[in-house]
Design brief:
With 231 residues, the chain is an alpha/beta fold. 43% of the residues lie in helices and 23% in strands. The chain is built from 8 helices and 12 strands. It binds calcium ion.
Length: 231
């Protein structure tokens, strides 16, 4: 069965371009030119993924995202204007799964859609899995062990939890605040520098071990565990 994508975009030429391209790739699509229509179609069309522009008439992308998140965990990719770093941070913190900066290439949009779908649909299968393995790297949260290139490396619990959290969603960008909330917890009185310090220590342990993955800084946004060949 074809996967369904809701395209929310008020610029008609962009919406049509995306629609044509995604249908050619085998997706079923519908388009909404404003926020009100987007919420309506989200309910009736029941998409597997939503491409959501931020600047929309009537109801903007933020309000649409909020309404969607109140009802569903469906993957949402935000379309943001170039240079609007704040939009990306806000989007991720409000529950978007990824963002694409305009102007974009349709090829890139397709790659992001496939990556997000793979990630979100894979989550069910790996739920409860507390051990992650990559080339020359094993992160075991049950035994609290980090194995790098066959050797057990002493690692403080928070560093291990942070790495596990990032690596359990490969290529997903997390903001510092998200990492603080999700790894340290809401009641933690630290600031985002705490995250930076832990990343730095992890990098000292992981630098140069493998070409297949790396702990990347996404400038102005946050961090991701990048795995090559996974979009
Ligand atoms: Ca727009």
């Amino acid at each position: 069965m074809a996967q369904k994508i809701l395209i929310v975009e008020d610029e008609l030429n962009i919406a049509q371009l995306l629609q044509l391209y995604l249908e050619k790739e085998g997706f079923e699509t519908q388009t909404a030119p404003n926020g009100g229509k987007a919420v309506e179609l989200f309910r009736s069309f029941d998409p597997d993924l939503v491409l959501l522009d931020i600047m929309l008439p009537v109801m903007d992308g933020w309000s649409v995202l909020k309404k969607i998140r109140a009802e569903s965990k469906v993957p949402v990719i935000m379309l943001t204007a170039k240079g609007e770093t704040d939009d990306r941070v806000t989007g991720l913190e409000q529950g978007a799964d990824d963002y694409i900066v305009k102007p974009f290439e349709t090829k890139e949009v397709l790659a992001r859609i496939r990556a997000v779908l793979r990630r979100t649909q894979g989550e069910g299968e790996t739920a409860g899995e507390r051990k992650l393995s990559f080339d020359k790297l094993t992160i075991n949260l049950d035994a609290y062990e980090l194995i790098v290139d066959g050797k057990k490396i002493d690692t403080p619990p928070k560093e291990l939890e942070l790495l596990f959290h990032l690596a359990s969603s490969p290529n997903r960008v997390f903001t510092r605040n998200q990492l603080l909330d999700e790894v340290w917890g809401f009641d933690y009185f630290g600031d985002s520098r705490t995250v930076d310090v832990h990343i730095k220590r992890l990098r000292e342990k992981l630098e140069g071990i493998s070409e297949a993955w790396s702990l990347k800084t996404v400038w102005g946004v946050g961090y991701k565990f990048e795995v090559l060949g996974q979009g």
